Amino acid sequence: MYVPFESLPEESKIWIYQSNRKFTDEEFQRIELLLNDFLAQWTAHGHDLQASFELKYNRFIIIAVDTSVQAATGCSIDASVQFIQSLELEFGVDLLDKMNVTYKLGQHIAHKSLVDFKKMAKEKAVSGNTIVFNNLVNNIAEYKNSWEIPADESWHSRFF
After folding, report:
1. What is residue 34's DSSP assignment?
2. pLDDT band at residue 148, thresholds of 50, 70 and 90?
3. Exposed e or buried b for every residue in 69-99, given b needs 16+ CB within 10 A?
4. What are phi and psi of 157, to 5 degrees?
5. Which of 39, 65, 90, 151 is close enough to 2 for a disulfide, judged by CB 3.0 to 4.6 Å?
């Protein structure tokens, strides 16, 4: 069951999917409709999941579940991955590849392969002060505090 993102508790589980390209505004509107439909019927063992989403920077899909009501289970997580895979097919994007880095260059959002980002770090094209998106955060509290952070404060720090 869809609930407003702001109403979810801070310990709610989240999954962040980053696109290998920027979505158009029209694509993001379509994704919003598809997410609303998916979350309205998303269940775990026959129980509704209190879930929500945020769309950020025309590039990120953040899905959250209030685990204090009902946790997502293996089958429900599989259903969400299948949903994300359907978005990949419909929009011709990659949302599941974790071997990419998305970061800020001023107001611009850049996306590079992990190999290219490591090379850029070595060449000092990015630094420990570069704002990166730490998509490994686990809950809304971490999302709010540790998603957009300097590379030195994330797992990306190993490259500097």
Report:
1. H
2. very high
3. bbebeeebeebbeebbeebbeebebebeeee
4. -60, -25
5. 39
